[in-house]
Amino acid sequence: MKKMLSVIAVSTGLIMAASTTMAASQDHAHQHDQKMSTQHHKQAQQHPDNHGSDVKRVATQNNKAHHNWRAGNKFPSEYRGVGYKVNYQHNKKLSKPGKNQQWYKADNQYVLVDTTSYAILKVLGL
After folding, report:
1. Prediction pTM value
2. If you classify domain 68-124 with CATH, what class do you get?
């Protein structure tokens, strides 16, 4: 009888220790998930090509003035971020940019820009 009580006491202690460890592990995982979610949300607000439903970003973009995109004009600095850059290989109608040239997408138009002077070289409304 004494042995059986000892076994039950030890088993109960082990179960309690294991459940405490699991609870701490789950709490840590929850904190990690919250941190990653917060980081992802911040990235979504900063990345203009995000296809999510970030209302703040959409409202901010819609408030930007639409520019008159013409060859020879200077390409505005607010559109020079990584999120506006376009890889010409993903669109068959875009030509391969030359040295010091980059395609950007702004106001639903593709704009080829000289990256040294930021002069607009070509505008395509595809």
Report:
1. 0.49
2. alpha beta
